[in-house]
Amino acid sequence: MQSTPRALRKGIGFGLKHVAYIAIAFIFVLPLWWAIVSSLRPNTEVFADIFPFTAKALIPSPFSLEAYQGVFDRGFGIIIANTMFVAIVTMIGGLIVNGMAGFAFAVFDFKGKNAILTLIIISFMLPFEAIALPLYTVTLQLGWLDNVAALIVPSVANGLAVFLFYQFFKEVPKDYLEAAKLDGANWFDVLVRIYVPLSIPTCISAGLLLFVFQWEAFLWPLLAMPSQQFKVIQVGMAAFQQQYQTIWNQLFAVSVITALIPIALLLPLQRYYVQGLASAGIKG
Predict the structure, then answer these.
(1) C-beta separation of 226 from 235 below 8 A
(2) Which residues, 6 or more positions from 274, have their beta carbon under 8 angstroms from its beta carbon?
(3) pLDDT in tens, 67-110
(4) Going by C-beta distance under 8 Å and a sequence separation of 6 or more, which residues neighbour residue 220?
């Protein structure tokens, strides 16, 4: 008899907890859902049920794909392809460069190691605006303005990615390294055959960080591409909004595309992403 009230309290607590979860999820998902719904309605119907607000505002009725057709007719597909190219090349180059740097800091002892590592850690705490002008000056001197290299090369080396690899690699047992050296393996073989397979979650975490940083970049592409002949998605979205600011359903369509692509990339890799941060970014 006494177990029944306890079970009832437990059931009520369980139900209330999940109601709170649903409420919080609803608060975070609602703006994105409204953007999706608005992008699937004719432009004249976007704000039809907002003032006053009714439940119809959350339903794409009447349903229309004219916004997405209009967006791609105006060349937004090319902008997406440009951004994917820059983000993927940056991610691949960043994994190689930052992974090798993290391996060097974790395995080798050399003069000034701690000081250099401290500077790297500080570097990812600085806001980009603090280095934008010096970076622009260097890019100008190299003749890279209006060149895709200006978007990729400065973003390859990333202090946070180096730190993630360093934190993981220093936790790898030294026995693996010693056994490989006894078998005659060189440093490159040690990195590729031993450390890299062990660091797949960290590679995924660092790769996603590099991809998202590049996907969300706005200020630097705006500075590095003054002619804007090679637009990336954030700059293209801003320009689209200025030029077509009255076509609200197309603006929502652009926003939805911009948000959903990184979400679609992150969701299936979420487990590895969290595991990589937990095992590499929090220790030490």
Answers:
(1) no
(2) none
(3) 899 889 888 899 999 999 999 999 999 999 999 999 999 998 88
(4) 128, 132, 135, 151, 154, 155
Residue 279 CA: distances (Å) to CA of 171, 196, 199: 9, 15, 10
Q: How many CB atoms lie within 10 A of CB 264?
A: 9
What SS3 class is residue 97? helix
The token pair at 266 is 């992150």
Choose the weakest-confidence range: 95-104, 207-216, 274-283.
274-283
Its pTM stands at: 0.84
Q: Which of 28, 64, 29 is nearest to 45 (CA)?
A: 64
Rg (CA), the chain: 24
Task: Kindly report the number of other CB atoms within 10 A of residue 189's CB atom.
Answer: 13
Closest by CA position to 98, among listed 197, 174, 209: 209
- 3-state DSSP of 213-253: HHHCCCHHHHHHCCCCCCCCHHHHHHHHHHHCCCCHHHHHH
Cβ-count burial of 81 within 10 angstroms (0-12 exposed, 13-18 middle, 19+ buried)? exposed
In the chain, pLDDT over 90 holds for what percent of residues? 34
Q: How far is CA 253 from CA 76, 211, 239, in A?
A: 11, 21, 14
Under DSSP, the state recorded for 133 is H
Give the pLDDT of residue 48: 81
Enter the DSSP assignment of 143: T
pLDDT of residue 115: 92
